[in-house]
Amino acid sequence: MATAIRTTKSPRELYSIAKRLGSWDPESIPVAEDRAHWAALNPDQREQLTKVCALFYEGEVSVSDTLAWFLLAVPEPDRRMFLASQVYEEVKHAEFFERYFEEACGKVDTSAYLNPLYRGVLLDELRQRGESLGRALTNGKNGDLGLQRALFATQYFGVIEGMMALTGYDFFDDLLAKTNMFPRLLEGIRLIRADEGRHITHGMDYIRQMITEHPEYAEPVRELFMKEAAKIPGRTEFVFTPNGLGLDPQRLMAISYQHHQQRMREAGLA
Q1: Which of 3, 144, 185, 223 is deepest in the core (most CB within 10 A)?
Q2: What is the CATH number of domain 11-17+34-266?
Q3: How many Cα atoms are found within 13 Å in the side-chain-facing hemisphere of 242?
Q4: What is the arithmetic mean of pLDDT over 121-128?
């Protein structure tokens, strides 16, 4: 197994960056300015864009609720400092989408868009992994705590942020390049993406470190990556049904596979 070589930053350095760059305020973005653009969409276009925004919102809420388990489970103080800043940022990301629904596109039952291909990875399975970390911490039977941390990090940083969210950002880039609409949505997405870059850098470094120190973790981590990669076609079909916005689903699916391969390389599993 070849370990990827990367130049990166320590958790303490990432925490310092987060203090400087992660302090943007969702309330400062006048998202209501996008309301006229939503009104100009036809029903299929509105459905597709609502679906993507809803999945982002549900994911941000879920990771905000579960990351504290991982923070409590890691022993390094500097890593905990960075993770504390990440919890704060994830809550702000959820706030941005919450405000966007309220002020730009209207009230939406976001949970209605959680089909099984998304509900498991974003909510149910992630919550179960967090609760497993909590049980291992509290019952004293923490012999497998290291593997549980590695798998939680893989699902969180490697899959949800490193594959799914990054592909979602490319979706928004394609949308806004094609339509020249929704400038406030793009403003929020760019700020969120900058935050998530720090999260992914930290998370992938952590996964690679865990695999280097515990080579027996490599296969379970690989299996999780491959299981989620197998769902890429189904997830793409869901997002592009309907495809009222006329974007290229094959391009977005290829990008998703590229993100998957990049995360595998960063974990030292290529």
Answers
A1: 185
A2: 1.10.620.20
A3: 9
A4: 96
Alpha helix (H) ranges present in 42-182? 43-73, 77-100, 116-119, 125-138, 145-153, 166-179
Residue 7 has pLDDT above 80, yes or no: no
The position carrying tokens 């996008």 is: 34
The first and second tokens of residue 51, run together, are 């679906």
DSSP track, 85-112 = HHHHHHHHHHHHHHHHIIIII----GGG
Q: What is the pLDDT of residue 137?
A: 87
Domain ranges of the chain: 11-17+34-266
Choose among 77, 24, 16: nearest CA to 191.
24
Cα–Cα distance between 118 and 180 in angstroms, integer?
A: 29
CB atoms within 10 A of CB 146: 16
Give, in order, the Cα–Cα distances in Å from 167 to each of 62, 87, 170, 187, 229.
18, 22, 5, 17, 13
